[in-house]
TrEMBL record:
Shown segment, full-protein numbering: 244 to 612 of 612
Protein name per the record: Glutamine--fructose-6-phosphate aminotransferase [isomerizing]
Location(s), subcellular: Cytoplasm
Coiled coil segments of this chain: none
Keyword Methyltransferase: no
Lineage: Bacteria, Pseudomonadati, Bacteroidota, Bacteroidia, Marinilabiliales
EC supergroup of this enzyme: transferase
Keywords: Aminotransferase, Cytoplasm, Glutamine amidotransferase, Repeat, Transferase
Organism name: Aquipluma nitroreducens
Annotated ranges, domain SIS: 46-185, 218-359
Gene: glmS
GO molecular function annotation: carbohydrate derivative binding; glutamine-fructose-6-phosphate transaminase (isomerizing) activity
Residues annotated as the enzyme's active site: 364 (for fru-6p isomerization activity)
SUBUNIT field: Homodimer.
Amino acid sequence: GDLEKGDFEHFMLKEIFEQPKTIEDTFRGRINPEHTEIVLGGLLDVLPKILKARRIIIIGCGTSWHAALVGEYLIEEYARIPVEVEYASEFRYRNPILNSEDVVIAISQSGETADTLAALRMAKERGATILGVCNVVGSSIARETDGGVYTHAGVEIGVASTKAFTAQVTIMTLFALKLAKENGRISSGLYLDLIKELSEIPEKVKSILVKHPHIKEVAAKYKDAINALYLGRGALFPVALEGALKLKEISYIHAEGYAAGEMKHGPIALVDDNLPVIVVAAKDHYYEKIVSNIQEVKARKGNIIAVVTEGDTGLTSMVNDLFEIPKSHPAVSPLLAIIPLQLFSYYIAVMRGCDVDQPRNLAKSVTVE
Ligand code: G6P
């Protein structure tokens, strides 16, 4: 059950390994048995409003904010509706311009985060339609919103979010495709292909998880790092942010996630033969750009760990270590690319003797400001 560790040493590890099931639980019932339609029941009443929205603003904190960023890339790419992503803590106090043509979506595992709830209430007062993507059924955010979608990740106990994140990203993917279909911005061929791609994710996640011994070996090489830099582009940029957050939360190694193109504007100054640089380099239309970033890091003797698409042998000679993920459409690759990064952080934290499930100073849910 969700409340027992079973054969796992920590809840976090158990929750990482549950992801093939939790991702499937999250899209089951939302994709029809023929794999031809996406059905998001909790949004039915508000769908016309969303399709006409002046803009969609997605708010959240921590890991949920990263899922929101993935949503931004997917919704804008496929549905062509303008999206903004904001930290709930900023949004609530900065007197944002909002009216009844705006849709504000809160992403929150717990549904109780104080900043997110307060930001949502403020948006409602200003006339926006408010929606929730929550994991905890009946939580405050789920109750106060005009509609929403539950992630079906089950109870998450590890303070560092893993299965809730991939469930949130699954919802963002379904949501983007649904909007794209409804407003005619996606061809039916691509729509069907992407539903199929999503339905194949659980098996692909399994195939990454079985390679955990390799990830553990790589983790052993980097466990004494002082700093780490994570780079990605497009929808894999938020994956880099989330990878860095996982490492800093549980291992206390200072880690930064960066959009790879921004590296030259600051973080490149940190690169030396001591710095692990984790590059999310799956095959997509940014690939050539990310290869250039890898070359820039290599020229400065950084230690490169790359997340690459299986069969991509081109990078082998350029990087120190590789985590392979199965080939997939870029729309769904965030769900795969994060898996090795979760395990990498987990093993490093365990090797450093950290309390993985209860990291210092952090709480599972921050219900006070
Ligand atoms: C805390 C947790 C994080 C979580 C964040 C937002 O910081 O430690 O794991 O991402 O809150 O929580 P929420 O429940 O709103 O998703």
